[in-house]
Amino acid sequence: MTLSFDFPGGIYPPERKVRSSQAPLQRATLPEQVSLPLRQHSGRPAVACVNPGDSVQVGSLIAKRDGLISANIHASISGTVTHVSGHDIQIESDGQDTWDTLAPLSWRDTDARTLLARLDESGVVGLGGAGFPTQVKTRVIVRHAIDTLIVNAAECEPYITADDITLQRYPDDVLEGAQLIASLCGAKQIIIGIEDNKPEAIAALEQAITRSQLASVTLTVIPTRYPSGSEKLLIKTLLNRTVPSQGLPADIGVLCHNPGTLLAALNAVRAGQPLVERIVTLTGDAIARPGNYWVRLGTSMETLLAQVGLDTDRLSGVVQGGPMMGETLDTLQRPVVKTTNCLIAATQAELPPGPQESPCIRCGACESVCPVQLLPQQLHWYARAQDDDKLARYHLFDCIECGACSYVCPSHIPLVEDYREAKSRLRHQQIETAKAEHAKHRFEFRQARLAREEAEKQARRHARLAQTKSPTSNNRADATAQPASTAMPSAAPQTDLRSLRIAQSAAKAAVRKAEKVLAREAQQAPHESHEDLETQLATARENLKVADLQLAQARENTQASTEESP
Amino acid sequence: MSDAVSLWGIASAIGILTGLGVGFGALLGAVSERFKGDDHPLVEQIDALLPQTQCGQCGYPGCRPYAEAINEGDALNKCPPGGEATIQALADLLGREPAPLDGEAPEELQVAFIREAECIGCTKCIQACPVDAIIGAAKQMHTVIEDECTGCDLCVEPCPVDCIDMLPRSTPLTHWQPVISPAAGVFASDRTLAVRGAE
């Protein structure tokens, strides 16, 4: 199938992929030691479950996932754990490379629950860059009906060839992995989207599809244009469906997976091999032997680059990820993690430092290349002015941070940096507002509790008073109670009673309302915590108790005064 | 002529207009009662702008009482934890002139920390905490729940053994931290080269 649709904007940066795609896929030498961060994925960091001194094998579980969106982490070399901290686990190699794999499964005759549990155990996450746990992504069928699985092989960023090589070397396995995930999420069709600058991978895939004789798989070759590999744009290109603003592809029945992820998922099921290594593109002019390498997770970038002949004299900076969306590293003492797809060791001539930023001249070049049709120059003004309402109105959160606007800007304004900062600031504000709201509810609950305690104390005092009074009041008029009841005008207790009754019914209504809101929210989002709503309900209940006590007391008072008055 | 101003004519006109008035009035009243929106009285709106530290530095026992006082005409500048931003927001909401802050804004967010070895278990700080963020019991060690603490420092004063410190609030790595230096020269750098290559 060659039918494809179009997305607006986009740019054509120099590709520079040939350098790393020519060399065959190789294995990097086993590292002497690895440092495995506990947070290699999106969501919460994993929790370490080993202690220093423990001996581990390749694939031994060393950190368990914490909460729903998190992933297990496994030892990537065999040896001894030397260091465990809140951020990472370090392992010293014994040079043996003994494996500790799980039992192999045949996915065609295994039920979905076992397969999902296997993906969960194996710590498979999206290897394209975001690192979202694969098993969680597959579980979206609980809420959304999925009809299409898209294999995102576009790889539109310059330099990176990891997916290209994966498809050239393991086309059948990627296809089988796609079938595995498609059967798990109930997708009827599988579409592979690939840019036309990867002819070898396309040929390999075509052969694999012919071999497998699958009718449900289509290969769509799309024109090379950055950023066609962005999830939302690829869906638009392949299916002509638009992901709603701030929505997910699952909202329109689509799941996207990277070829590397599919391969890792298949290995986890078929070979019982947890995610302990990945294919990384090592490229850049400062490297003597660029290419793609199977690298154990946790390998230090410094040793890895030294292996492929890093020329430190010519090196001007190392970029992790692609040149458009990646980040420049300030140190090489960092480990390769699950989301490291590419390391570019660039020379000064290759990626020269950006020229000095000049003021925006409102040329509109950024607007015409923006693939999601935002107004980058407006966002730029509002982000610098911290005008949050306007940023929301111009849909800042729909920006995919592709960097096309910064690339074409004649004033060399680092636009994406501005957007990232504004996004983080807004997220931070949201957290702070939620925290303030939480504190408010707790304060209100405390006030209500103190009022209730006070009312109870009053009631007890009243009861004691009535007890001591009752045996004497029949014989002679009580000296202390009498002036109190006569001092009040007879109408006052009545109006008092009435307002208390109103207060009590208002408190009752508040409790009912709080219960209703909590029940509704609990039904809509059963997995989230509704602590604030629960506090509100508890506050309303306390208030109701106060109103009840006060009303009961006032009733007794009026009864007593009516009994005494005749 | 006398027909035009007949008593019947006037009476019927008054009757019809009164009837219409009463009818529509009743309709509007019923509709406004039936479709009542969530009303946010001014006090609620003011309260929403306050930082909810419940510290009492404004002279009122909590943020809500101060919001009520502002609604009754009290000054806007009595909230040090909120700082200038809160004064500005309140001034915008109420259409009043912003005044400079009465007091000093804290430089960083803080939380209370009890040096547990020194705590004698007197429960005084528990009673002082406006958001129930301290747990403990009489003659037992107390401790502060960091996530619930608003940093109001109301617990520091009542402590008879001075074992409570105000420490800067720790931010987990997952939280946003200001980006100081944008990475140099990754973006927009290929272009210059591409242009050079084309030439």
UniProtKB/TrEMBL annotation, chain A:
Location(s) in or outside the cell: Cell inner membrane
Co-factor remark: Binds 2 [4Fe-4S] clusters per subunit.
Listed SUPFAM superfamilies: alpha-helical ferredoxin, Nqo1 FMN-binding domain-like
Annotated coiled-coil segments of the chain: 530-557
Domain 4Fe-4S ferredoxin-type: 351-380, 390-419
PROSITE patterns, A to Z: 4FE4S_FER_1, 4FE4S_FER_2
GO biological process annotation, one example: electron transport chain
Bilayer topology annotation: Peripheral membrane protein
Keywords noted in UniProt: 4Fe-4S, Cell inner membrane, Cell membrane, Coiled coil, Electron transport, Iron, Iron-sulfur, Membrane, Metal-binding, Repeat, Translocase, Transport
Keyword 4Fe-4S: yes
UniProt-annotated binding residues for [4Fe-4S] cluster 2: 370, 399, 402, 405
MF term (GO), any: metal ion binding
Co-factor requirement: [4Fe-4S] cluster
Class in the EC hierarchy, top level: translocase
Alphabetical list of PANTHER family matching this protein: ION-TRANSLOCATING OXIDOREDUCTASE COMPLEX SUBUNIT C (PTHR43034:SF2)
Subunit structure: The complex is composed of six subunits: RnfA, RnfB, RnfC, RnfD, RnfE and RnfG.
Similarity field: Belongs to the 4Fe4S bacterial-type ferredoxin family. RnfC subfamily.
Name of the featured protein: Ion-translocating oxidoreductase complex subunit C
Annotated organism of origin: Vreelandella populi
Gene (name only): rsxC
Automatic annotation (TrEMBL), chain B:
Main localization of the protein described in the UniProt heading: membrane
Binding site for [4Fe-4S] cluster 1: 55, 58, 63, 79
Any single GO CC term annotated in Swiss-Prot or TrEMBL for this entry: plasma membrane
Co-factor note (free text): Binds 3 [4Fe-4S] clusters.
Region (Hydrophobic): 1-32
Sequence ranges assigned to domain 4Fe-4S in this UniProt record: 38-96
Cellular location(s): Cell inner membrane
Residues the entry annotates as binding [4Fe-4S] cluster 2: 119, 122, 125, 159
Top-level taxon of the source organism: Bacteria
The enzyme's E.C. designation: 7.-.-.-
UniProt keyword annotation of Repeat present: yes
Subunit structure: The complex is composed of six subunits: RnfA, RnfB, RnfC, RnfD, RnfE and RnfG.
Family, per entry: Belongs to the 4Fe4S bacterial-type ferredoxin family. RnfB subfamily.
Name under which the protein is recorded: Ion-translocating oxidoreductase complex subunit B
Organism of origin: Vreelandella populi
Gene: rsxB
